[in-house]
């Protein structure tokens, strides 16, 4: 019968949000990223079997399943050449003050297996995890060839649990990880409150499966996972995630945190909508390839929207990406190359997804405004973890704004890295996703 899709969407929204309007927006965003626009369906809409199958899977995943202290977050960094020297310098900076969790980001100049083993041994009493980078951020500076770290003591982090999901290219299965989270916290994943828990996801940036990973995570819980794709200093050969004293490829590190103070999860992207929509009418999701926009060859339609010849289109990619815009918020898809009439991206799009043509704005001003909104919401900021797109770092270098961007975070304990993709509910590009602590 007609209208089944509308009923299924309403059920998912009701069961998962439980009247929380903020969660309604989050769940609608998840649906949009799956290519399902809730506003498109009413009681007269045809019952598309493909859409119903996706919604049934989402419904199945849903059904399957202290005193406020003063925040104490500390950061440290080292630009020493060897892993031994760098880790020793971090140990000297942090000392041994009841560390609960240590998050770190390390240049690919360090041997990944060596750096992970040394960091675990140096801070054995803490939960230690991280990934490789395409540049690091710490203490108001944009760095290269360094290791940066943020430490939380027992007064600033109530609890943390880390799991590694391996063999991502073969099959993405987070079941064991979420069972472990549920045992650790004695709470079902679908019952966990996003105001109480937050997730960090670090994934091998060479896997190309971030969209699918975020999709299955989103079906498991309302807790929002944010993070970045590990990098290798723009060599695009081998990136690693770190946990348990080991370095992993073709894997993701999932961390479920329960901070001791309020936090906000934000994203910023320095773009604005400028042109007509390009609706994906033919795509190869697994290869992040779009063959047609608006039932035209993809490259031709993209070039026409920009008003340039097809042979000049690739030169426009850095300044005019495309994005899925949800409630005014763009989720950017960065184009990488043209092959025949197809356009390849660093993030996949599903057929039927409407993408808007975007243009760049002021990255410094936009980032400042984002932090000021977070500061006003929380009543102050005591620490920031930032996952900053490598595209943004290249734009800053080109415009000679790197030092100025680093200064935006001066005076606030901040660590982060330049990534091969950013995670915030879904997967996107040319974005900075951040965890901001009060």
Structure description:
Helix content is 30%, strand content 34%. The protein is an alpha+beta fold and 438 residues long. The chain has three domains: 4-63, no CATH class; 73-267 and 364-437, no CATH class; 271-360, no CATH class. Strands 14, 15, 16, 17, 18, 19, 20 and 21 form an eight-stranded antiparallel sheet that branches. Strand 15 (289-293) and strand 16 (296-297) form a beta hairpin. Helix 1 (4-17) runs parallel beside helix 3 (49-63). The radius of gyration is 21 Å and the shape is globular. The termini are far apart. 50% of the residues are buried.
Poorly predicted segments: 62-71
The number of helical runs is: 12
Q: Helical percent range?
A: 25-40%
Overall number of strands:
26
Radius of gyration: 21 Å
| Tally of separate domains | 3
Question: What is the SS-derived class?
Answer: alpha+beta
Strand content: 25-35%
Distance between the termini: 50 Å
Q: Average pLDDT, to the nearest integer?
A: 92
Q: What does the main sheet amount to?
A: 8 strands, antiparallel
- The shape, in one word, is globular
